[in-house]
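Same chain as my last thread, 230 residues:
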Amino acid sequence: MDKFLEASQEPQPECCLRELKSEIRFWDAAFSYDGQNPVLKSFHFTLQKGKRYLLKGSSGCGKTTVVNLLLRYYDVDSGRLTVDGAPIERYESTYDCVTVVRQEAVLFHDTLRNNLTMYRDIADEKLMQLLSDLGLDKYANAKALDSIVSENGSNFFGGEKKRICLGRALLRNTDVIIFDEPLANLDEETARKIEDLLLKIEDRTVLIVSHQFTVEKLDQFSQVYDFEGR
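reply #2:
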């Protein structure tokens, strides 16, 4: 009975993190997938609201693990991960606050409009302006929005698919947006264009995970965390 009463008085997890007010912070965090080989050790990192960050390093260094911890796929083995000072374990999900654009651009067999809006009611004018801002002017019209995207976007070029997925993420309008290897499998010219688009995002906390960002543009980040130098 005593154990039951103690448990009932503990704070219960909230359904979902709705917003980021100040910061997300990793405090001396460690994590291992198998319980033996740590992917993260003594990881200290702070994401402040409205700023831009880059995690860089070779494959397997822990970059994507950081993203997975933020998404509540796993909990840290030791240390802490907090959101606005509260343990992230308070929340069952961070979906309403965090948008992730994964390395593989995923489009589905439906109209371009539905691929962008995910079936939400968004004015065509807003969609056309977004497409124009993304350098996709030839699709910034009602006819193109009604056109059908082939399965997995096979009727689009790789750079176009990346930009459409970027547009979809921006339309979610969450406080935090994460790009996991957004430059992978792109030619150099397209990759540089995607970099410039990412660096233009404002009023969001932006976390980019990439090992190939142009060195000359690194000073546009609030912080660059290089796993190789740790």
